[in-house]
Design a protein that fits this description.
globular; two-stranded antiparallel ribbon; 259 residues; Spore Coat Polysaccharide Biosynthesis Protein SpsA, Chain A; alpha/beta; single chain
Length: 259
């Protein structure tokens, strides 16, 4: 399977980190030059956000603009290329030793998939009770809820075409656009699956001492796009807390990373 690694030109340490991990599994990848939103001219930046209003709820920071342009570039490569699917990965991932068995064999993939998430989500998610397939002790489950993070996923050609068909005015940053059922116009229409236990996890979420800072947010800007369960609970009413408990009984659960 073709693997595209999204990497900014300035992030040499991240590229070295990724090369070491892929080399350990005897895998190769193609480096996809990421767009640095901070390098866009003011005119380019304003043109991007003017055609993609976010109704005042969230802001298009330059980091998020770059992130969207980088991932959408990968989607276009998938949509226009000869491959039925490709793996898209970011450069700050810890990768399971089983990763190679999932990108060198397609027999485990559900026939109808648009996206298969390989990464550990940061929130509780609702999965089908039974996996669509199992491979090397991991299940691939249909996903029925919002899920955060877009650090690694397999995208089918038809899935890429669906993403690219959405008008600009409905664009969001990649994980919200692909996986947020509440705000995305396309997420609930995609056939999305999750590998569990996950095959990757982002360094910033799963390390006691993260090696890589976020490339999306700057220290003086607090993101309003992703709020953790604990953040929510601090501000929830009793009725909202009951809803969280209800979701737990409805099958929402954590997916952990298995090295």
């Amino acid at each position: 399977m073709r693997i595209l690694l999204i990497n900014l030109a300035k992030d040499v340490d991240r590229l070295t980190f990724s090369r070491q991990q892929f080399a350990q599994q005897e895998l190769s990848f193609e480096r996809l030059e990421a767009t640095n939103g901070r390098d866009l001219s003011q005119e380019e930046y304003e043109h991007f956000i003017s055609s993609r209003p976010r109704n005042g709820k969230r802001q298009w920071t330059r980091g998020k603009v770059g992130c969207f342009l980088s991932h959408s570039h990968a989607w276009k490569i998938c949509a226009d290329g000869p491959d039925d699917c490709i793996a898209i990965v970011e450069d700050d991932l810890h990768i399971s030793s089983d990763f190679r068995y999932f990108v060198t064999d397609t027999s485990w993939m559900p026939d109808d998939f648009d996206i298969i998430r390989l990464e550990k989500p940061t929130n509780r998610i609702k999965l089908d009770k039974q996996p669509a397939s199992t491979h090397r002790g991991r299940g691939t489950y249909r996903l029925y809820s919002t899920s955060w993070c877009a650090g690694s996923y397999i995208l089918s050609k038809k899935g890429a075409q669906k993403l690219l068909s959405v008008p600009e005015e409905f664009h969001e940053n990649p994980d919200r656009f692909m996986f947020c059922h509440e705000d995305s116009v396309i997420a609930s229409q995609l056939n999305t699956y999750q590998v569990a236990p996950s095959l990757t996890t982002q360094d910033k979420y799963d390390s006691a001492k993260p090696a890589f800072a976020s490339n999306i947010e700057t220290p003086d800007i607090v993101s309003t796009d992703r709020i953790t369960l604990m953040d929510k609970i601090k501000h929830l009413s009793p009725q909202e807390i009951l809803l969280v408990i209800k979701k737990t009984f409805q099958g929402y659960r954590r997916v952990n990373f298995k090295p």
